[in-house]
Amino acid sequence: MYEHYWGLKEKPFENTPDPHFLYYSSKHEEALSRMLYAIRERKGAAMLSGEYGSGKTLLSRALLEELSSDDRYQTVLIFNPRIPPIEFLQEIVYQLGGDDANESKTKLLRTLNEILYNNRQQNKSTVIAIDEAQAIESEEIFEELRLLLNFQLDDMFLLTLILLGQPELKEKVEAIPQLRQRVSVRYHLMALDERETKEYIEHRLEVAGCQEHIFDTETYPLIFNASEGIPRRINNICDMSLLAGFGSKTEKVDKYIIQDVISDLEEKPQEKKVKG
After folding, report:
1. Is the pTM of this model over 0.85?
2. CA pair distance 9, 131, nearest whole angstrom
């Protein structure tokens, strides 16, 4: 809607997990590095936690995109883990190409075992990523996750389990000693700082084809303070600010537009200042 007005090829602040827009802050680089380390070294399980909107899902898509370009990896992504245990196993087997994904649990486990061993014989690594893992409510699902890690040889695991979720995921994993002990790689994704927030905004604008400085310098501290450095909140503020600027036909997004948008979004509303 506003892309042409601002000279953009596409909207820069959509809250969709498009790896094309991923901004690699030092925190995101570290998170991705640890996940890749767990996979390449055939660790049993790794856990990436972070606040809602901090970029975990986007990182998982970037991770899987990188792995998909390498035929040494076969990947599974479960983005809705709030399903019955049998459907959980069925989905894993289905994504791994199993022919009998609708069979009994015993047959599912047998098929999964065959797939994992076959991958190992072909020098392939199997990666199972569970997004929004904090949403798992069934103890049976956590038990299935623990049992998945029993697929191993004497010297290595036959799969790597990647758990991604909000901070409460850490508490749930800690409550299951048998699972906790097998999560050998962990990282908590922190929010962006003020400098990173500015770089994040500029990066996404650049990726979207921006050739000009759309946001006034004085807008960045306001956006950072209101968003607390959480990418999803930054996106909301910037997207609505571009829309507001388009609507009022301004040359740039200034602090007054930001203040109005923050107030409308109720992102830590600040007292509005009158131009003058």
Report:
1. yes
2. 30
